[in-house]
Amino acid sequence: MPRVTLTSANPARQTADALVVAVASSPAGPRLVGADWLPAETVEQVTGLAGVLGITGAPDEVRRLPAAGGLAARTVVLTGVGPLDGVAPDAETLRRAAGAALRELTGATSVAVALPAEDAEQVAAVAEGALLGAYAYTRYRSADAANAGAPAAEITVLTPRARDKAVTKALARAEVLAAAVHGVRDLVNAAPNELYPAAFADAAKAAVKDTGAKGVKVTVLDEKALAAGGYGGILGVGQGSARPPRLVKVSYSPSRPAAKVALVGKGITFDSGGISIKPAAGMDAMKSDMAGAAAVLHTVLAAARLELPVAVTGWLCLAENMPSGTAQRPSDVLTIRGGKTVEVLNTDAEGRLVMADGLVAAVEEKPDVVLDIATLTGAQLVALGPRVSAVMGDDATRTEVVDAAGAAGEAFWPMPLPADLRAGLKSKVADIANIGDRFGGMLTAGLFLQEFVGSTPWAHLDIAGPAFNEKAPFGYTPAGGTGVGVRTLLALIEARAVR
């Protein structure tokens, strides 16, 4: 991850490969934002030649110009913030503008970011966006290709408040948060032949060790321990694979915590659909079906690194869903931890089976709230598209998640849990079936999970679309793994620390 520094020096005198400046759109043409220090020659380039240079100031638009006289930087990079209508850009606008610029600046070694950064909130947004945009997954690239696509190594954020304690603290948090998101992206982008359940468990142990955070413990249950513990959902899903399942518990335990939060993440390291096999088209993206577990792991580690006064326990429900002679069959009956039985009518509705085990285990420890996060249903994509996640649960917890997402800059939309859909989950032979009627499939999945939380305050986050970007990158979001959910979960934990 790039190194970030703060400076209050004159931006015009900042030596860097690229100097990033905000430009807004307006009916009169593009308008530079907070850049009175720019040389007149550069201002003329932007305002006088906007049409020729293709500069509009639209969000995600990034344009490069050779630096004019009076600038120490080699190039000027204009990043669009859209129409501002006389108001300062909000935090998400700054995040996206900084991220879009850094995402485009592969090959640049040093970048100076001169976006509006007048207080701690703005500095945090600029730094966070820049760090999130400065990401590249190069694990499987040759050395030359990896170097060519490498993000900037050094980022300087220009702010008149560079020495303020609140600003430096905000930067430190942005670095922890970005590192967590990068960690999730790396796991999601990893090839499934390398990231299988046991390998994911090893990665979790290594990540805990690498952070050096205090008060973090990892426990791994293998297939024998899962059988002894009655984790029938995880075992049932994983029995078709030659690579057995795991349940990983990652707990952060500060002294005298203000709250106790449990997180449960779906970790299907590859989802073929099992016997109810998926179509071949698009199956390659199913390596991302463990994005929820990755988000849980790195949220716990971020909370520990920030030394938040909240106990956070993460449950990573890890399995590979494969078709084979040992795979579970439609009409099999599984016994979830705690004793509830589930008739498996579709083996491609496997995420809710592993999550049921994780939820029961989490609730047994009596947390104040339990949140589960999963790439759970294609119905989420149908309902909300590829950029908006869904949240279901009891009214208070669902609202708490939506508020945290708003503060963090992630898009989560509240969805209902209609009681009438529960009838579709009735089984002729077991306590509950794993699928219901075709319509309202996202909500039915939420109702299924609700069966395993009892009276514990709970919310379910369905990130099926937003977790893996199969289209062009945008803002600070790359193609592939996005790291969605970490920022929302961490914001909720931080809010719990001061309730």
Account of the 3D structure:
- The protein has 499 residues and is α/β, with parallel strands linked by helices.
- Helices cover 35% and strands 22% of the residues.
- An eight-stranded mixed sheet has the order 8-9-11-10-14-18-15-16, sandwiched between helices. Strands 1, 2, 3, 4, 5, 6 and 7 form a seven-stranded mixed sheet that branches.
- Strand 12 (333-335) and strand 13 form a beta hairpin.
- Helix 9 runs antiparallel to helix 11 (351-364).
- The longest helix is centred in the middle third of the chain and has 25 residues, at 165-189.
- It starts with a strand and ends with a helix.
Short description:
By secondary structure, this protein is an alpha/beta fold.
Helix content: 25-40%
Strand content: 15-25%
Catalogue the unreliable spans: none
Q: What is the oligomer described by this structure?
A: single chain
Radius of gyration: 24 Å
What is the overall shape?
Answer: elongated
Strand order of the largest sheet: 8-9-11-10-14-18-15-16
Largest sheet: 8 strands, mixed
Features:
499 residues; alpha/beta; single chain
Secondary structure blueprint with pairings:
Elements: E1 3-7, E2 18-25, E3 31-33, H1 40-48, H2 50-53, E4 62-66, E5 75-83, H3 91-104, E6 110-113, H4 120-133, H5 143-148, E7 154-158, H6 165-189, H7 197-211, E8 216-221, H8 223-229, H9 232-238, E9 246-252, E10 259-271, H10 291-305, E11 310-321, E12 333-335, E13 341-343, H11 351-364, E14 369-374, H12 378-384, E15 389-393, H13 395-408, E16 412-414, E17 432-433, H14 441-450, E18 458-462, E19 468-469, E20 480-481, H15 486-497
Parallel strand pairs: 1-7, 2-5, 2-6, 6-7, 10-11, 10-14, 13-17, 14-18, 15-16
Antiparallel strand pairs: 2-3, 4-5, 8-9, 9-11, 12-13, 15-18, 19-20
Helix pairs in contact: 3-4, 4-6, 6-10, 7-10, 9-11, 10-15, 13-15
